[in-house]
Amino acid sequence: MKTKDVINLYNQFVMPTYTRTPLVPVKGKGMKVVDLHGKEFLDFFPGWAVSGLGHCHPEVVSAVRNQLKKIIHIPNNYYILQQAKLAREIINNSFPGKVFFCNSGAEAIESAIKLARAFGRPDRFEIISMEKSFHGRTLGALALTGQKKYQQGFEPMPQGFKCVEFGNLEALKKAITLRTCAVIIEPIQGEGGINVAPEEYLKALKKLCREKNILLIFDEIQTSMGRTGKFFYYQHSGVVPDAMTLAKSLGGGMPIGALVATEKIADLLTPGTHASTFGGSPVVCAAGLAVFRAIKKEKLLKNAKEMGSYLFEKLNILKQKCDIIKEVKGLGLMIGVELTIEGKHIVEACFEKGLLINCTQGNILRLMPALNVKKKDIDKMIKILKDVLADAV
Ligand SMILES: Cc1ncc(COP(=O)(O)O)c(C=O)c1O
Asked: I need a labelling partner for 393 at 20 to 30 A (CA). Which of 45, 164, 245, 325 fits?
């Protein structure tokens, strides 16, 4: 089969919900992806932030393989050993509390919405989110998402959701009512364009939520698992949320989502109030445990921090030479390169030269390489980007 044959199959049999690049990856190893025709790509946006350890990390592969041989699925009316261990690992590396497992980011968000409403019962149900946020495509997550374009055509949205400007404490204060039970924020907005919430703002947010007895929830679906040089972003600011959502790279490529809640609220979702058939399966939890092991064994938090600084430095040098680059922003290995022009053609030109990157908000190139990225990968990426940007002028 050739790429065009696969595309034909899609045109006939797969719903057209995605804008797709004409690439059929069939193999992946570390920073590299190989397509159907044997062409190699350097992947600086592996798995849309899912493959945080790169493709097919040996620790994950062997954990999944070993688990597959024992038992694949166990329903949640029994106890799942790997789920218990992964919950302990998450808690030991974050704050005292408990974990609920599901299969995706949107489901983790839905779980957070239900937890917030359980907390607010009986009178409070309203949740405030941020403009330009992205929380997923299910209806609850969509109602939270502060970008109208994702909601259009699917109204009416579920009730009880409000949105305020990211970083604007006064706007938030005004939006809070007697019905408000929670505030949710991505501490670094991903799809919104790599917008980092200032530390002072997060501190003030926490204080305000405390005063009003409102939950502060961090959506750490993109920012967690070492992405910014710490396991979880909140660990930079010292602002501990009441709950946080995880997904993406938690499973090293396997589909997983999680809601982590502090002790005070972790028991609010009682038996029968929430569930997920596949949530926390032994295979994905074994993969999650392998991700934690690999990050620790290979000192990947340190590498993310160091390589993040190196990448920033290189991009800033490029910025000095290239007027198209307006700003380089982000933290660790979660980086946005804001352009003065549309980014779509830049992404396409990089693709032609064997480099995979992403563009969000029309003009912000998004780079989120694996935590084990090396200087030589960064140098190679910079060279391609430099050539592409030079051609675009
Ligand atoms: C911050 C954030 N929250 C939630 C989601 C939704 O996750 P999923 O696509 O796994 O449902 C995403 C996905 O991009 C995300 O970036």
From this structure: 45
Residue 8 identity (one-letter amino acid)? N
pLDDT of residue 237: 86
As for ligand 1, residues whose beta carbon falls within 6 Å of it are 104-106, 109, 134-136, 186, 190-191, 219, 221-222, 247
147, 218, 219, 221, best to mutate for ligand 1 pocket (most atoms within 8 Å of CB): 221
pTM: 0.98
Q: Report yes or no on 338 lying in a domain.
A: no
Question: Which residues fall within 8 angstroms of residue 175, CB to CB, at 6 or more apart?
Answer: 128, 162, 164
Residues in the chain: 393
What is the per-residue pLDDT across 353-364, written as a single tens digit (0 to 9) for each?
999 999 999 999
pLDDT tens-place string over residues 198-251: 999 999 999 999 999 999 999 999 999 999 999 999 999 889 999 999 999 999
| Separation of alpha carbons 77 and 79, rounded Å | 7
Angle between helices 282-297 and 300-321 (to 10 degrees): 70
Our mutation pick for probing the ligand 1 site, out of 102, 189, 194, 248, counting the most ligand atoms within 8 A of Cβ, is: 248
Confidence (pLDDT) at 52: 98
| Structural domain includes residue 265 | yes
How many whole angstroms from 327 Cα to the centroid of ligand 1? 24
Give the residue numbers spanning the domain of 150: 58-297
The number of domains in the chain is 1
CA dist 338 and 329 (Å) reads: 8
Owner of token pair 């992946």? 28
Question: What CATH number does residue 210 fall under?
Answer: 3.40.640.10
State in Å: Cα 235 to ligand 1 middle.
20
- Residue 249 maps to a domain: yes
- 238 class by beta-carbon count within 10 Å (0-12 exposed, 13-18 middle, 19+ buried): exposed
